[in-house]
Fold ParA family protein.
Amino acid sequence: MESASDLLPFARPEMPMEQTIEQTGAPETRAETAPVPDDRPLGPTGRPMPVLPDPKPVTEHGPARVISMCNQKGGVGKTTTTINLGAALAEFGRKVLLVDFDPQGSLSVGLGLHPHEMEHTVYNLLMDRTTRLEDVVVPSGVPGMDLLPSNIDLSAAEVQLVHEVAREQTLQRVLAPAIGAYDVILIDCQPSLGLLTVNALTASDGVIVPLECEYFALRGVALLKNTIDKVQERLNPKLEIDGVLGTMFDGRTLHGREVLERLVQAWGDKVYHTVIRRTVKFSDSTVAGEPITSYASDSTGAEAYRQLAKEVALRCLDA
Ligand SMILES: Nc1ncnc2c1ncn2[C@@H]1O[C@H](COP(=O)(O)OP(=O)(O)OP(=O)(O)O)[C@@H](O)[C@H]1O
Ligand SMILES: [Mg+2]
């Protein structure tokens, strides 16, 4: 059940901070208020933009950090971020596995797969112990990046898993053999907080929360934070929120900037300096069945995801 604070419309700037914090589900830590003298240019989040080095080169692969892309709100950029962050990390030499964990199968379609032509999917891995990871993994078309595809079959898993022993740990069990072979495993969650998403969070080290830079974007974030906290407490003590990513940002509108400002006030340093701007190139690249990093390699969208890859590497992979 959503609490009253989840149902409040997005906090307006004149609202007291307490209300904003409660509504955004942000942790107790708040953005630093003391101004630090800094002559670096301000980034889109209103903070000085750090210099982001290229990720450290790797000579051998694994163990992988498993990261879920999670927000129960639909259409916020989870799948787009999974594909393009993965492709950008692969460009930097990381071995990446993408897991399509949404019965809509958008991640698989976005990488050019046809939903009815998949021999094995994540569904088989979850429900049939004789299916091995290598039976399901397919190349993504991007060098260094593989995919575990899904289609609508996965929707049956949510129902069937309810009767399984250790039902929340099923994805963790099937991904275990992949940990040693990859540097990063990105799980594209469906827009719900049901058993599939709980499986993804239980299998993960970190969560990235993509949030559309629009009013109402923060609706339900408290509920998401609550779910993450419960999984961390009861099923997966190592789980942490790696970062909050502003997506579909339009710098020309005041409210886009206000949403980012509110996010930083509520989530502080968890908010990535990188912000993904709104551009039709993303839907074009989905139609083409490839990441924007190859479809429009020089576009601002491709550059933004490369920058995000550097931030993710700096915070969590190379730390
Ligand atoms: N930065 C962007 N600018 C413009 N369009 C975008 C951007 N990011 C994603 N889109 C488009 O918005 C739509 C929704 O994006 P996406 O599928 O990544 O969201 P999602 O959170 O995975 O959705 P769902 O909850 O349905 O799984 C897609 O058509 C995608 O191409
Ligand atoms: Mg999606």
Q: What stands out?
A: Residues 25 and 226 are 7 Å apart (CA to CA).
